[in-house]
Amino acid sequence: MTGFVDLYSENDTFLHRLDPRVKILSVLLLSLLAFVLSTLYSLVVLLAFIFLLLFLSRASLSRTWFALRFVLRFMTLIVILWPIFDSAGTPVWATLGPIKITEPAVWRGFTSAARVGCLACVWYILMFTTSQRDLVRALVRMGLRFDYGLTIAISLRFFPSFMATIYSIIDAQRARGLEFNRGGLIKRSRKYVAVLVPAVVSALRTADSLSLALQSRAYGAKARRTYLRQLKMRRSDFAALAIVTALFVVPFVAKYVFFVHI
Asked: How many domains does the chain have?
């Protein structure tokens, strides 16, 4: 069972020290870059760069695996299913009845999987290195209403917690002798009711505790909020933002101005 409930890992790295506004803008630019790039080679290079940043965030192996395993499974599923539903192109590698597996479709499957991996993994950089408090403060400073920013931060904060609760319930039910892998599809689906009901009850209790915590801290008592720490951009923040902007602008101009296939 996963023991942590937050993807944020407190460390003293240059990614943690960056202004959260810079990290938000950088993640958005890298996400857009995944759509600009169209070749498998370029997307793999971008994915490797994102994995390098994840490594530099110094998150624990268990925390990193907890976050990435869902993405890796989805990427694998794309690679497997894409050639089945996309039969365009030649040469044909295999024929299974009406299904044709073509070489271009296989490479398109790998390309789509790499793009999805980039889009998903790049956001883990933000969640691994930015606390909920800093994330809300950055979103508010960027013009978002505080209650909207708090809603987003709470969603990012409690999603891994909710997943950990589900795994705990599954382990508890298995310890009581409930076997989820036996029986037909309908029978197995009914067994998951024993997981769904406690999970919903736990989510309602968490929502109630959260509302009480916000009320006890006088949330919304004053229209104008004050902060103990103010966000200030440093030279390193401007330098990091300039580098990421260049990483986006150069391929964008090369593709849409000079029509270079990248």
From this structure: 2
